[in-house]
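Hi R.,

Here are the chain sequences for the assembly we discussed:
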Amino acid sequence: MATQAYSGNELTQRDRAYRPPALRFTIRLGKNPVAAASLVIIFIMVIAALFADYVAPYDPISVSRDTFQSPSLSHPFGTDDLGRDLFSRVIHGARISLFVGIVSVVLGVAGGSVVGLVSGAVGGILDLLMQRVVDAMLAFPAIVLTMALVSVFGASTMSALVAIAIVFIPGTARVVRSAVFVVKANMYIEAARSMGASELRIMFRHILPNVMAPILILVSAYLGAAILIEASLSFLGFGTQPPNPSWGLMLSGTGRRYMEEAPWMAIFPGLAISLAVLAFNMLGDVLRDMLDPRLRAR
Amino acid sequence: MTTENYWTRFQRNRLSRRRILSGAAWGTAGIATAALVGCGDDGDDSGEPTSASTTSTSSSGGASPTAEQPKGYQTNFAEPSTQPKAGGTMRIANDWDVSILDPIKTAAGGTIVKCNIVYNRLISLNTGVTAPDDKEIKLVSDLSGLPEQPDGQTFTFKINPGIKWQNVAPLNGRAFKAEDVKYAYERYATAQGSVHTTYFRDIDKIEAIDDTTLKITLKTPNPDFLIPLGTRYLTIFPRELVDAGTIETQAVGTGSMILKEMAKSDHVTLAKNPDYFKGAAKLDGVEFRIQPDAASRLAAFRAGQVDFSYGLLGNKRDADNLLQTNKDVNINISPPFAAIFGLSLNLDDPRFQDERVRQALMLGMDRETMVQIIYDGFGTTIPTIPWTYIYASQPKPEQFGKWWKHDPAEAKKLLAAAGQENLSFQVIYHEYTASGNTQQLEIMSDLYKQIGIDMKVQRVPYTEFNSQWIQRTFPEATDGWQALGFEPNNYFYNHIHSTSPGNRWRIKDSELDAWAEKQRSELDKNARKEIWKQIFDKVLDKAYRIDKPSGTGFTAYQPWLHGLRFGGPLGSNSSYYEWGQQMHQAWLDKA
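And here is the predicted structure of the full complex:
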């Protein structure tokens, strides 16, 4: 059997052709116009949130006698009823909204993934019991459940964060459990078991990496929902407390009260919520299309 | 407060028409590029619309707030000369929720308003459309006539004829007797959980001489004794409900309206009592619609869905705006006579026991700016104790002591001296109106931040707030209503005496206790006034209460609502409480 020698040029071409899966995925994502637009919006919001102290021209809680100023060069989004710069408040509001959104989703999805993983992988009576608890939690609309939880914890940003995380657990658990059932039936799981791998190793080493796709989709889909729930809770007085800037809080109270004479007080926080939710939802849709093998085949 | 920044510097640059057009063109190009950004190749992230915000700023504009248009607001608008019409249900949007009905356990407006409609008082205050402009409290007949006072310590009341309890079980329309008053007063005075015991501490004995005669004898003379009996806090309830154990959930009284239904977070309905001893009400009934959201209440009022609303107008701007859309609405103004809300500290907290900390909190507050920002200048900065007791005309701020000014530098020094440079505490509060205490607390957070204090604000529901405030269980601080009263003892005893349940600040000052006791039985007007001045000055000097500014009250009435008027001397006729005394006179002129 003749052996084939490789020239240096061929190796270089192969090296050039090879791209790690994460990079290939990112490139594909970037080529998708919807995903790119979403990522740009999210990137801008994340940068604004991270560097809010530098980006915002004013202290977001600093009051002045320049109340109800319409948008101008000195106050691009106008001022509110207490003379506070709305642009600065929207920027700082992004910090709260994104922090609550990202942390609650990470916590909720992580918790739900563990529950779904254990439930699906172990099965039996444990699965039955865990799923009945999940059923009970899913019976409540998300906003109702978060309001009930925040009522118990006390209204604050952190309470809202924890409540939102808890609300995401059952949905995640149900999705991950379904995915685990599919992965569990594969031969490589049987092979790992026959080689003496422990159930814990199989669960986290062989099953978890193969159910990451739905988890990623859930993360992006839930981010928009989390921001919306935080805004809703703050709107209803259950979330972020005054004078801290929160998009939902800015919309409620004086935002609505002075909507006719100072519409900018409601428009800009509302726009920020809409953009953030839209961006995360669009990204979630794209991720689903790219990661779902059935949709990818079309 | 804001300082100069790059926006203000940027604004200083002159903007030519060409530059604006250029900016707009670049902005449009930027937006178009942004829309196309996702259509490019890998890494094509150019074309970020750097000037888009400038474009949107210059184009969004928007209507600027209404300029100040002085309008002829009055303290008393005229009632129609036509004959009152009978019929209809008055709909009231309110922010309180259903809670316990036992009059001895509460002083909160939302709770006692139902009691004030269902029950009567032994005597009453002259309120309503017939006496809206009075500057002094006047007592009038209610369940009884005004008492005979042979010696200043004995009061003999004659129950008015024809009074019956409402024809509802378990009372079933039985006759009202002097014994009923004796029972109610003795329960107010001695029952566990009563928050009104202070009013009765001077009473030696209460006797029902016969069914129509009640005699009250005092241990010591009390010049203010009669006034509390006429207030909203001391209504007469029946023994039957207490014996049945339903006094907290049921109200059957002698009043003009019968309580029909209470649905938590939804509504309270009442129907007219046909047997009311002052004549049946003109209204068929009343419906309180529980709407905690101020914007919803305003929308409902604007659309004519309700005839009256709680907490509708926080300031003149709100009143002006309402008149723009609802030109026929009647608006009454009520100048403030005392601080209505205040930052109330838990004085059992060691940090707040240090008077330097409290004084720093006083100095950290810029009351004048608060009045300008929140109330457009239509407000005042006065303490909780009405100055009317001490001065002939409203004093200047300097007369309220050395802490009644904004001096952040001195505040910082005091905090440093007290070792509280990084003071942090939480204030719980209930948002009574959309543009009242929330705004005050937001401004205070900013002002206190400037002197190193981290004041965290926590909004809580009505019932939670009031249970903590009335029962004095709030942990650190609260934005408490100041329990406005109508007799001097309310301010010079109930608020400050260390044993008084009305001392929600938990003030413990032996000198104040002594003065409070002394003034209570001082019959010489001038001598009593001297003691009041001492109390007034010391409370301010020790900064026991962090008084906030108050706005002029604006109350709106639908043009078809008549026979009702709120305001009155010393807030004696507040819309938060005083429906009962006027309900039988109210009427609707609707097609």
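Residues 32-53+78-297 of chain A form a domain with the MetI-like fold fold (CATH 1.10.3720.10). The two ends of chain A are 42 Å apart (CA to CA).

Let me know if anything looks off.

Best,
T.
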